[in-house]
Fold each of these.
Amino acid sequence: MWHSGKMVAPYAMREIELTEPLRPLALREGEGGAHVLVRRKGRPLARLWVSRAEHGAELSVDELDRLIRGVAAEAAARHSLREALLGEPERQPTPSLTVAVCTRNRADLLRRCLAPLVALRDERRHLGPEIDILVVDNAPPDDSTRVAAAEFAGVRYVCEPVPGLNFGRNRALASTTREWLAFVDDDAVVDRFWLDRLAEGVAASPDAGGFTGPILPLMLETEAQLRFEYAGGFGKGFDWERFSRERWNDRIYPSNAGRFGTGACMVHSTSLLRELGGFDEALDTGAPLPGGGDIDMFYRVVRSGRPLVYLPGLLVFHEHRRDMPGLRKQYYSWGLSVAALMRKSIRCAPETRPSQHRFMRWWLRRHAIRLVKALAGRDVSPPRLVLAEILGGIIGYFGEYERSQKRIALRRQSVIGQGLPIASCERRVET
Amino acid sequence: MSDLWTTLDADLGEPLQDFALAGDRSCLVNLRYQGAVLGQFVVTPSDLPLSREELGEMAARAAGPAAAWLVDLGRNDLTIPELSARTGRTPRCGSGDELFSRLGDALASRRSRPVTVSASIIIHAAGWKPSVLRAILAVIRPDLRGGHEAIVIHDDGDAKTAAVLADHADVRVVNVRGGSIEAARQAGLRAARGEVAVFLGEGVIPEPGWLDPLLQGFDAAEVGAVFGMVLPARNERADVIQGHFSRYHSYARSLPMRFGPEFVRGWRWGVPLWETGGCSVMAVRRAAALSCRRLFHDCSWRPSVWKDLLAAGWIIRYEPLSLARRSSASMEGSDPLGCSRGRGGLLRHMLAYRRRGTRYELPHVDLLPPWRPARRGLDSLLRRAP
């Protein structure tokens, strides 16, 4: 439930490392609260919401300890047992990796995104092949992106003339020779342990088709950002998980591919991406269908038989939408994308119809319950956001994918450029 | 995927290795340390192969909280409803390198509690396969040297079990012709000489060392009953293992629990048998059983029945160090009953009830007392149905 008295933006972003002595947590003037990431030996375990209205301007060590144990005790226990079973992991060599940042006309955000990536690259030079950082400039209106990329030594730049995020992703796929291809959104910043955790994940799961990780907010300065994150954000938790082709106790699996991760941070096997025909350019096109491309790929990876592994340490911080109209558009686009994806999946793989229909019923039921709760003031999201998502779902279900395919065909015709062929319907996943 | 699943025990004290399964069976993995079960997870053929690191991640996820709690609790039980972050009680957890030694100390401390009561192990053998009865008697034989006794409630028309019993002169036999499991348990209670009557459910085979942890739970005069943990058999139907895992995989099952009068005040329904494995392995103080008339006159796996025991001031404990396995295929000549709550499960139970006429076939329903009249109505309706 949303407590407007407790949740007052801005919230400070803090971190606590459990292996270091706890210190009191003090809020600065003007801060309505704090979002506290709890780590143990650098690994994220849990997060804690502290509000000025509920906890005061300063939390003593004892109170902070109690709150931390309330949210992180079980995760800390899991981490301890993991350590007892596997020992302290050695630093793994850097995998053969391209990190692609697809961007358009956001040079400042790009600089903020590239800086930590370049730092990680340089810090791990002695641990294996240097990671390849690639900027994909999507239908640029000017050369600001190229200029920003050139400020960082060793960062490659390519241009994809056809507008659409998945066109950009496929350009990255065509431009890499590395074994793994990671995508990081231009409005995101990778965690300082991101590459270490990815290296560990690749070593532990050599048969994986891809990796995803948690997305946390970069800042919580506005009410829209706070609402979004408090409602769950992009959160998939901090537990390691392996998503195989089948799951015995989940009737909507793997149609509920949104639980596998978020495209703001995803890593895929390059050979598998090529085998699957790349990203579907009719999704993630920007308006009017600005989503679904990442989830579509997660779904296809899992159905290919290669597992998708969720690494809780593959952490990325994302700048959420700052205003409520923007947030409403995002919820709408989610509904639109989910429904379009559902229809596409049924068209391309009719044998998945029962699973997709079960997923649709689950989705409708869940959103109906959320809407009732929101109208009663018992959901974190206001009713207009939930309604936006439902409306998106309804519109998306009735032909949005097909309309998008026609739109991108027109786009291609109007732009000179190269790209991979449309992915999913032409090369079906082998069952 | 196969209709049969396997249950495997993985010892966390042994080095982890890459994990593979034989054949196409899914597997329920019990994570154990020095005999105690700390957690469970499921592996299907589509999950394979699993590397050592991946197995470690899955094991840590499933067993980490229970390990920390056991270290924190030591010899004590978790008093429900303490098990909640909202109450502020959370386990303190040290570093990984000291976890196993502290866990070993905690388990050893628990196992070193004295046994201060004598036991009568009561086995209702009607309809069991002779091999199952033989297996149970072999397991409990060492326990009988400790001053405890075993009583088999036997239908004297059953020649096969009579042949098994002939080889066990140290077992007392009480003949009861026909009758329900409740009638058998009442006969066993009347015949028992020990302070505590220990009952094994249908198709349940205890593991060696199962009895002492149960009896150690009677360390205070007000303890009325102690339940043990039940796992599925090593090879079992998929729906049985799935039902077991769906209901019981919470890590709370690995933690010793104590239910007292404060629990009755806080919970409307009764002892959460869904958490404790039901009554498949239970030890009841004879004095408590005799003071609670409903206990063996009504279906003893109903939480509301045990609520009467708590309301009378007795304590009920759950002791996960007492382990047994239950096989759905252990009943001679009958369709094995699954624990599944899935579609068809209810119908199967009702059909079995009509066939056998014993009320314990009905799935346990954790309902409020007002539903009891509805249940009695359903009973009589089904008995009268053609």
Note: The longest strand of chain A covers residues 43-51.
Amino acid sequence: MSETYLTTSNLLGLAGDLLTAGTQVIAPAQDAEPLVGPPQSGPRVAYRVIRKPEEMALEAGMPANSLKEFFLPSTEPLLKWRYQKNDVELKEVETTFQPRVVLGARPCDSAALEILDRVMGWDYRDELWFGRREATTVVNLACPGEDDLCFCTTVGSGPDSVRGADMLLVPSGDGYFVEVLTPKGEALVTAHRERFSQVEKGRAEAEQFRKEAKAKVDRNLNASPERIAGWLAGHFEHPFWDKLALQCHGCGACAAVCPTCHCFDIVDEPEGVLGGTRRRNWDTCQTSKFTVHASGHNPRTNQNVRFRQRIMHKFFIYPERFEQVLCTGCGRCARVCPGGMDLLDVLAELEELAGTEATPSKGAA
Amino acid sequence: MQELQELAKKLLSEGRVQVVIGYEAGAHGVRPAFVTDAADCGRLIFDPRCVHNLAVYLSPRRSPVKRLGKPAVVVKGCDAKAVAGLLRESQIKRDDVVLIGVRCSGVLADPRSGATLTGETVADKCILCDLHEPTLVDHLVGELRPPLPDMPRVSRRDLMLERISAMSPAERWAFWQAEFSRCTRCYACRQTCPLCFCEQCVADKSQPQWLETSPHPRGNLAWHVIRAMHLAGRCVDCGECERACPAEIPLGLLYRKVAQIVEARFKHRPTEDPEVPSPIGKYSLDDEQEFIL
């Protein structure tokens, strides 16, 4: 929509203005100090609700968590129940939320919001998800390319992608070249007009930043999600899967840090004798318990088929239904995996298989 | 390295094992490797990036690994203690596995790191290491490098424990509440633990349900305290849970504290001798009983 410029000090000022006005601000921030890790590993950087502008750490590296937890918390109440004589009183939770702003979202995290809107609004409208989406203005910060595990450019995003964002900041000089993308973004600029430059500047430097970041990420992986989806369609059974996940521990670390993994479990937790809370909690297809039937039967018998499910859902099933890959290329799964499972390797191998084998017609699975 | 590769090749080609579980260099750091073909043994490496405890792959619940056949597994001293734990608790039989011991002077905290091994970059578990040459093994390879000149005298974990011990109960409560608040119950701590081998974890049981699965303060406190208790006298301090935790919760502090209590009370420290029973697995008339009301 429109373009403007924001100096670094005005970004801090903007965060301060928002906080003073009572708006919740979510931003990458640093913990005080590392507790037990090797000293060189440095403090943990994570998105969190900040209380002071100085807590923002926009250039301290990729946040360890994704933005997902601010829209789909790892646990949240859905309703409360209480027995009343011969009746049960149900109390639903609020689905409207106070306005809030994310400052300095990574493009791989905002893209996930747009991708997940599709499933969250598909067979029923998830009021909690959309309540939070509507209350939130997302300001992206273009990414320089974190490391050799980034592959956003392979999966339809990029280090300066605006998917799911209301505004994009691109480092330029002593501040940021700003693209205002949506009415929510316009509203933020209008409400804080004095923080933004009246003249458009910094475009050339921003262009250079974007070009360099893209080139850096492009080097990491050469694969085509379309070709891979085509191969996956016809190869539910294939020797490739049989040894795929030998080193996988079957934990949910990858899903926990994944911006797009969104499966949840619903539990009823009694609180005292007469009442309780129904909650939804993050779940993951990587645990053996995920598919256990009430009878005790488990159709996914081992970790190889569970990991196949992870790949199938992200690169075949979701794109088939929603025309988007369920992955933003952030690389977090490979960074955290204690068993060294490496999604970039898996995709590179699938690309090779897809290139060398003729693809049978769909439905062969 | 060549010694390790030659040995693996011999074991596989003579049919003494069907898979060698070791380490290989991937595109993005070192990772566990499962070599089933003698011709592939050149993949195997051992260097300071080999931090993973491969004993976890011997657990009976690893069905895809089990299906490969009899394993040989590369073990450092700390890993050998975990194998001893599996033997002690009757999870595996000694004859069902070939143990390839590697002499180890310390590993890096991060297998993706390209750093040189120094007192700054070394994994915390190595600061406390008392077993550079495992003895519970069938073969021993590699060379022991001289100790790091700048190896810290006290582990960072013990320094942190001292700080926590000095806190008031309220401060300590606040500390752990803040740390546990990041837990999403992904169970990476449990899944990477070679001694968390239960077919049915107490956390997964729903009839009866012993603890809440929700990652709220109540559920997380219950989970982490239960796990610490279940590891009392059993944890070999390999540090895998802490390395695996995507929320960077300093879990090792809990288990180390419990280990200190067990050592003080029962004079027990987990070793690589499977014949020494853990305190939970034996009864002695000399056991302290003053806590029994």
Note: The first strand of chain A starts at residue 2 and ends at 7.
Amino acid sequence: MYYAYILKELRHHRHRTLVNILGIAVGIALFVSINAVSTAYQQAVSLPFKNLGADLVVQRAEKRAVNSSQAGPSMRGIRLPFSNQLLSTDDLDKLRIFPGIDAMAGSLLLWDFDQGGFRTIMGVDLSQPSLGPVHIKEWLAKGRFPDKKGEVVLEKHYAKFHNTGLGDKFTIGSRSFKVVGLLEIREGAQIASANIYLPMADAQDLVGNESKSVNLVYLRLQNPSRLNQTKTEIMQSMPGISVVSSDAILEVMGGISRISDQFSLVVSLVALAGAVFLIIKTMLGNLVERSREIGILKAVGWTGGDVQKQLMGEVFLQSLIGGIVGVAAGYLISYLLGYLSIPVTTPWEVNLLPAFAKETGAAAQMIRLPVSFSAGLTAAALALSLLAGGLASYFVGRRMAKMKPADILRRL
Amino acid sequence: MNNKSDILVGIDLTKTYGELEVVKGVSLAVREGEFVSLVGKSGCGKTTLLSILSGLEHPTHGQAFLTGKEITGASEDELALFRRENVGFIFQSFNLIPTLSAWENVALPLFPMQMSEAERRRRATELLDQMELSHRLEHLPAALSGGEKQRVAIARALINHPKIVFADEPTGNLDTATGDAIMAILNHLHRQKGMTILMVTHEPELAKTADRVLRMQDGEVLS
């Protein structure tokens, strides 16, 4: 292979070279952007769980949901949410030793209704510092997270609305607490987003929970790839238990997230096929234009293989450049799309708000698509661009091998 | 082979395209170091016969031997390798690669061979120097005159130290003075270096400069 000849050919036929490079670049850019955005969608959807360090959220449905003939629930004072009930000690023991569980943390979610409306209170398990709502201590804007009874952290906007600041006294029910921190709820925190956070023991006292139980359990798996299997196993062995993962968010959202997931591969392959088609078409057109050159090369002693190698060198270089340009353009498009925010809807089971607020705008949170660079996707895109070039040069090479120098030179 | 000194032999060579018989049972021999011209009117089958004898094309019938090797049954790639090692070509339309410089065009047959860039360039430069084109090494064909292009083509034909040079109307695209200069180079190659040359031309005056003239008419060699 004569490299200088390759470069000179490509430079001399700028228009042709540009068309080939752009053809591949467009296909690869589509491939990269579709896959990057699709992955970002998946990540956005899993963000609420990722923010808690959890793979699964477990709870037991509220008793009334089983027997709806009972009287309606009270909407006064501090109480457990309507949607779930306290998990029994037996439930917690089973979950703790369940196969494949790496870590477990609980929280106690309470609602506090008063004449002015309602507020959500989250009792946090401080013994498990990297799992569950305690994880959001990383978002503290001021102060610290509670480390003993009698201390609370307030959500920043809630605190501002109630003119409460760091060090102030804050009343919940009939008890007084000291505000030790203010935190800013960030995107993707809706399954742990409350107005007030306090130590678990305080939350249990507030609701008169003598069994010292919780109503939400967060599980981290040893092997996240077994998520669906573990979820099914838990539900089968513990009837009445609700187990939720990020898949539930995807199901709730449906629409583009599902289309993106299901069709990204198909669209990618179509883009690739388009690139191969374009380069083959251009190169077959080139063959007519370059038949004189091929005839000369063969006449002076180049074998079909020699000519094909030279041609493949040209295609390889164009494919590589097209691939690199395509990857860069694909990521550029993806990052621009990353400025868009998508509404991530919280599944009903893990929505911390009362039923009347679940359908409001607060139930869905806008999350910016977390587009990120992927070495695997980049490598796959470059490999595909070279594959497109390889396929193109294979088909063109077959045509070229059949060209006889005497036939070509006779036509000149 | 009938004779050890015959470098090129054709026996009963026939070439047909469909119903059209272009070369009709031609038999001929060219001796080593001989300059033979094949003369005839346009369309009489000269170029087709040259293509068969040089291994560019297979005959429909008959045998061709070049440097003692039968080339008529060889594959396309075998023929290409054989041409690379034994044959030089000079074409009427020069057939230079427009994107390559003069020296690269000369070195074109060497590109597929295991050889350093420096060696290729040295050999090409030496030949272009002999053609009095050492000042044109880096020029593209578009920047060369017709005579210069044909001298580059002659240098290319010689780069692989061929045993025989096939020239197809080498002065056909040149003015008289330039054509004479090209013929002088071919005669020099033949007389001074003992190069075997088979030249196709439709000009009887040019043909006369060869050792032997073969006349072709309607696909047959008359003399």
Note: The interface with chain B takes residues 2, 4-5, 8-9, 11-12, 292-293, 295-306, 404-407, 409-410, 412 of chain A (CB under 8 Å).
Amino acid sequence: MEQVTSSLAPSRATTLNKSGPASSSQSGAGSVTKRLGNELMTLMMSSSPGISAFPKTDSNLFDWIGTIEGAPGTVYAGLSFRISIHFPSNYPYVAPIIQFETPCYHPNVDLKTGTICLDILKDKWSAVYSVQTILISLQSLLGEPNNESPLNNDAATLWDNQEAFKVQLLRHYRPLKDDA
Amino acid sequence: MATDALRAQVAAKWQESFARLNQNEPGIVGLLNFSQAWDIARECIRPRGLDEPDPSTRNVDRSKFQASFELLNRCRRLPILLESFLEDMRKRFLVIEEEVKEFLLEYERTSNTTVILNLVFRLLQWYKKWLPMQELGATLHSAFVLSFQTHLFSVLTPTFVRGFKELCASTLPSADPETSDPAPNVEMWQAFETLGLLDRYENIIASVGYEHIEAHVVATCTGQWSESMLGQLRKWMTDKVVPWMLLMYARNATTADDARAMLQNVGSRFDFHMAKTLCDLRTKEIFDIIIDYPDSSGALQDLKECMHRVDQRASLVHTLRKANQKRLLHPGADTRLILTQYVAIIKCLRIVDPPGVLLFKVADPIRRYLRERPDTIRCIVSNLVGDDDGGDPLVDDNEPIQPLQHWELDDYTDPNWEPEPVDAGPDFRANKPSDVISTLVSIYDSRDLFVKELQVLLAQRLLAISDDNTEKVEKERRSIEILKIRFGEAALQVCEVMLKDMTDSKRIDGHVQSQKASIIHPTILSKHFWPMLEATDIGMPGQFRMFQEEYAKEFSAFKPDKKLRWLPHLGTVQLVLHLRDRTVEADVPPLEAAFIELFSQQDVWTLDELIANVGSSVDRTAALNALLTWVDLGVLKEQTENSFKLLEEAETAPEGARESRTVTRSVVELPPAPSVQQQQAEQMRVYWKFIEGMLTNLGSLSLDRIQSMLKLAPGYDQSIDQLSMFMEAARLEELVAVRDGMWKLASK
């Protein structure tokens, strides 16, 4: 029930905002918060295996922390990676900024900064994507890197040799600690 | 040893006294005269026995007395005379004391108030006998009265007080209107007055009056609630009690105005007492008065008026709360009853105390109690939609339907604004004369619960409608329309969808049937808008499955973006069984139908096989019940335990009674819809997801942090204690672990 009404709510809210430009900035932030709240609800209830995210604090919905587990059957299986998600104030018209916090040895991830090269986070971003779809994309990106546009050239070249890749991966990987 | 000075002084005193008594007479003539006068005077005022002649009867002596007293006065010996008189009186009083004792003994033996009356008259005789003549001056008189009363009161024992009270009571007008009232005994009251008994025993006389009033009020008003008694009581006071009061309180009155003025004070005291007694009585009866409402409105009016006069509000609240605690708020009382009584209390106390302070104080425990009852909401809601099996509706039909009210801030520009009553508590919220439904709904802080329950109820009722009974759907629609006025359009949107589903189902069914006729007529529900219906995995066997599949195919052709999920257990099946020697018609629940369908494949089944063929979720008892239905209808027979055989040919053995039972057993139970409690459990599951989510991503967290983070979950309203209990439960299930107050997910 709740889901139904709450998912009905934001569309109404946005139309309202458009009609009242005077208070647009504030209520605009309000509608983003609402959208993020709904996304959180959907994500929590979806129970997709191996992906999860949650706001850092209850006061600020714009900064989240996520966890991605490597999909079974890939070199990343059994490893968990923490990521940070920052939503801009004009989300969802602009993609969130996502970085790996856990060092991730991956062709499309900068090992030092954690920057990710993923088309849907850049030019292919669309407002219909959500935290959940991003997390699923990232999870599949781990197993299926795009070696055409690598950020980590070593990893890209090493990808074909999965065993050597795994050695490198584990060399850089640091398991999660309990504290955020 | 005596010095000269002392001697001289004594001599001077002696001379002076002698001169005063002797009055300049020669020799001691003066002294002799004085001595004679003294004797005469003493004789004159001596306290005598009742049989002795009065000194004043002999007129001859009168002038002599006068002269003697004058002489004594000149010699300034009157005070001494007075003293000796009082001393004499004290000595003689023993006689009276003896008499009083005798009378009282007599009274103790007989308990007859006449004895007391006689005693009073006897005392009066003594009093008159001893009373010094008026001519002897006021000093002597008042000294006598004082001294007489002092002695008298000292010998009057508590027994006398008791008797006196009885005596006074006996003069009161009788409660029984048949017997004539005792004639006013003016003499007696005068005797009381003379002897000073009235002043001394004023309290007792008043208490006699009070007790009389109390007795009358209790006798005439107990259980008489239909009309206001106060007017009658006041009339009774005027007719009966006031004349009695006149005798003592207005005894000196000469004119009617005089009497009224004298009575004013004491009269208002009596009136107050009457109001207080009535108020106490009604307070004691208040619970039953409320039960009898509206037949008891007279009593409530009385109570209201008495409350104005007597401040018994606290006691009323106390009594009613206690009565409620004892008689209403216990597990034995039906929730419906509690609600009915609560509504009655609301109505009654509004009469007694329009501002609502009393109501607020009394209602609080009831509301708190109702909040704890699991079925309160259901009761209220079913009452709202008129789904009651008998019993009065909580709401009058003629009460105007109006939107639910919110607590509003006082409007200080309102010229009719009034401050809160003085005894209002700090959390008192001015209860604007809102309607009963608003009050009931406000038992809970949120309206959502009601709307949810309403949905559940509506779902039950809609699903129970078999065939295409548009009329019933229309009825539901009407009641929803009414509720919309109360709860607002938005809240009931979901119900609207549910109703629309019903009509849509018919339309869709019409279309599907036109494409390909089918014997099943499903009701198609939009899953999101209906309360959670208990899912089941009964798989309908045989031809039923075929029908379902065919229908589903047609449906998806008609609505390609939608998919049917069958809830077969909510339907009913109309069956005609063609057996070798007979046909049996029956309206049965789907489980029964499924079983009998299986018997068309083979004649003998065991219970376990049947269950396995229908779906493992079927409860054994339910399955057994379903089979017993057929056994009752004479279609199946239990061969050995849990093994059933189809009777192709009816067994002749059973008596005719059994045959006649082939009537359709229409056991259409309301489909089970999850209660609010189950939904709360579901809510908790949502919160758990959030907790899991935050612990996964943020690592270990303190309980406070979890509590504050849970604010992100919609509708989270649990206290930290509840959360703590919840987490503890999760810990026992080894879902989480705690260390140093930090919670984290248990490592898998």
Note: DSSP finds 29 helices and eight strands in chain B.
